[in-house]
Amino acid sequence: MDIRQLKYFVTIAEEGKITAAAKQLHIAQPPLSRQLKQLEEELGVVLFDRNKKKNLTLTYEGEVFYKRAKDILHKLRDSILEVQELREEVAGTLAVGSTIYCAALLLSKVSQIREKHPNLMFNIWEGEPSRLHKLLENRQIDAAITTTPFYSKNIESKSLPDIPCKLVLPGINHTASAEMPT
Amino acid sequence: MDIRQLKYFVTIAEEGKITAAAKQLHIAQPPLSRQLKQLEEELGVVLFDRNKKKNLTLTYEGEVFYKRAKDILHKLRDSILEVQELREEVAGTLAVGSTIYCAALLLSKVSQIREKHPNLMFNIWEGEPSRLHKLLENRQIDAAITTTPFYSKNIESKSLPDIPCKLVLPGINHTASAEMPT
DNA sequence: ATCTCTTACGGGATTCGTAAGGATG
DNA sequence: CATCCTTACGAATCCCGTAAGAGAT
């Protein structure tokens, strides 16, 4: 099993033709055909229907594996970028947004991370969930912490450990943003 | 980037020594050392501290990548097993639990899947969330559908599309189980 | 002196590309 | 006959294992 085979498979599935996929992958068709065959043999599963049609279509098993393969490839790509950016970000800036209710969680985490990376600057934003959503989509912030997660593509949400959130200040001015260089 | 390199890296991280990891992987030390070096060069990130200590320890970047790599390997393994079992399960049995509130979603899905795989039997259980949780942990059921997801290790939860759940029968006998061969 | 990681080199395996063979519309 | 997939073969690449070197305790 090889990452390359997963990439090949995903490309074939998306192109519908081995020939077209090979062109996109900048390799010749025969190797692609072989890699697909090897993948199917290794899995013991037929991934494509080869019935007379000109376009290859995924079998049911193929569809399931396609989703998984795509997810794995995305996770791998994100993981690589994450550690690479991590190395750079030791002297970079991370913009994080939070609702006022989650500020406690955010600020305690910031303290922890700043111990590890003294040169990492934080840029902290506060706002209501809808505003955080916009900031996130515009990449003005890299992450948001909220009790009401957004459900939209290109945005992943993760559950954080429960903490007691206490409202310390009345939310008078929810649209204002605060910048904290420390 | 290669799956093998990820496996190698994870093993090294868990063993703390290249020598021990190589023994466990049934390969010689030099190739392992090289693969690790290649991985670090490809990522552009130093994964281990080589400071005079006898045991290699993960750098901060290494720790992050270790978690990601382990997750990816698990997902890959699960994906392979999933499609392989899928092929076999065409004549197998799938045990699914559901709260009474989600039965509509479950039963409609069962109908869809049974069209694809006429020989796939379903074993459907009904019960309250806490009971489903136990059944799931004991592997008596393969999956559960509920409005109140469980948060525990070895259990993954996924959000399903919203459907209107209507209570058709009063939940008189929540602890009974029903088996539906069709 | 022992343990561990790194570098050097040769054999083996895997993969690619080009070329030829089938199958389908 | 045109298009696509598959099989066959030779060349290049990559990986592994053995052997030797370097560093640290």
From TrEMBL, chains A, B:
Residue ranges of coiled coil: none
CDD domains: PBP2_LTTR_substrate
UniProt similarity note: Belongs to the LysR transcriptional regulatory family.
Protein's UniProt name: HTH-type transcriptional regulator BsdA
Keyword terms of this UniProt record: DNA-binding, Transcription, Transcription regulation
Keyword hit for Cell membrane: no
Residues in HTH lysR-type domain copies: 1-59
Keyword Membrane: no
One Pfam family this sequence matches: HTH_1
Top-level taxon of origin: Bacteria
